[in-house]
Structure formats: structure tokens, C-alpha cells
């Protein structure tokens, strides 16, 4: 059974959340101050934490930080202040979602379901980088182009990896060089372009007119996620 930790100092609120979670067949425990919450979290076994920000003892933001340091357990923040600042701080600290008080239990339960669904799928997502019809399976160190595995030398593999992590963004040449050679670059500036050309030959349908790895003159390159057109070719 999926175990959820509720850290909330307002007891009626905490009990209402627990009741709703149990109705959805989750197991739920309540901590009513920050220190107790942290202790219970550290004792382990929770797949989600619902966390109030304003708490006696260790406050919610601090707890959120600690949960983040401990790993990937998702956190939903409850906040009384409907200010953008709180939202940003909460999400910057790594909360997966937030709900502003007052909220409906229905809304909170929908968030809980969505986050648990996402976190079940997460391990798979984390090991795959995708951009259009090009993908990298990081665990297997494999590159898949339009459904077929393609062999890439290490430098080109690293270039593709940094492109897929930064889809649509212009990557300056220096950034690409440091990602590809990791501080051991002894080549000429043109060396990067040679590797880009080889990468294009493997990814592009028409390497002479690339539509995925785009040259940004005077700056570097940009990766555009593209699929091969299904008709007209
Ligand atoms: Ca509170």
C-alpha cells in the first residue's frame, strides 16, 4: 500500500487530509510539527509527503530541502500565502507541486494521484533523453534514430546528449566543446564542426540541409526536435 506522510500542524486539516487519502486507499501518517515530520520521513517508507510550510519546529521549506537531498520522494507543498514568492520558493526547493489554502480535498487528491503516477514512471523517463525521432538511452548508452540503434563515437554521443538536454536552446561552441571533451580538448576550433558534421550524417535525413542540428552563426548550434514527415517524402 502506498504510504503518504502528512506534515501539518492544524490537526483538523491534517485529519481531513488523512481521511481523504484513506478513502482513496492510501495509507497516511500525520506529523504535527516539523521535527516530528522530519523524523518520520527519515524512518522511511513514504512515497509522497504533503507538507505545510508554516510549522512549529523545523519549517516546511527546510524539510522540503532535506527531503530533496535525501532523494526523489515527491513533495506537495501546502501554503496559506497565495503569493508568487512562496510558489517560486517552494518549487525552487524542489517541491513537485503546491496547493494554496483554502483548497478542496478533491483538488488535493487529484494532485496526489497525478504525482504518484508521474513518480512511478520517473525511472524510465530519467534514463531516456528524447528529441523528436532521436533518443538516447543513457543506461544502455544507446542512440536510437527513427527506431534503429545507431553507433556513435564517444564525442558525438556526448554532443547528442547535451543537445537533447537543451532542446531548442542555442548552445555556444565553448559549452559544446566542454561537454564533448570534458576539459581535454587539444583540437582546432574546426574540430567541433567536424564532429557536428558526422553527427548530422547520422541524424539528419538530408545532412546538407540539416533540420535538427541548426547552425547559429557566430555562436554555436541548436537542436530542434523533429520527426520525419510521414507524407510527402
Ligand atoms: Ca501551519
Descriptive report:
The protein is an alpha/beta fold and 233 residues long. The chain folds into two domains: 3-120, 3-Layer(aba) Sandwich (Rossmann fold); 128-223, Winged helix-like DNA-binding domain superfamily/Winged helix DNA-binding domain (Arc Repressor Mutant, subunit A, Orthogonal Bundle), CATH 1.10.10.10. The protein is 44% helix and 21% strand. The chain has eight helices and twelve strands. The chain has helices spanning 11-23, 34-43, 60-70, 84-92, 105-127, 154-165, 173-181, 189-203; strands spanning 3-7, 27-31, 48-52, 75-79, 97-100, 128-131, 134-137, 142-145, 148-150, 170-172, 213-216, 220-223. The strands form three sheets. A five-stranded parallel sheet has the order 2-1-3-4-5, sandwiched between helices. A four-stranded antiparallel sheet has the order 6-7-8-9. Strand 11 (213-216) and strand 12 form a beta hairpin. The longest helix has 23 residues, at 105-127. The termini are far apart. 27% of the residues are buried. It binds calcium ion. The site of calcium ion has 5 residues, from loops. Residues 9-10, 52, 54-55 line the site of calcium ion.
What is this structure, in a nutshell?
The chain has 233 residues and is α/β, with parallel strands linked by helices. 44% of the residues lie in helices and 21% in strands.
Write the layout of secondary structure elements.
Elements (H helix, E strand, L loop, with lengths): L2 E5 L3 H13 L3 E5 L2 H10 L4 E5 L7 H11 L4 E5 L4 H9 L4 E4 L4 H23 E4 L2 E4 L4 E4 L2 E3 L3 H12 L4 E3 H9 L7 H15 L9 E4 L3 E4 L10
Helix pairs in contact: 2-3, 6-7, 6-8
The structure holds calcium ion.
The site of calcium ion has 5 residues, from loops.
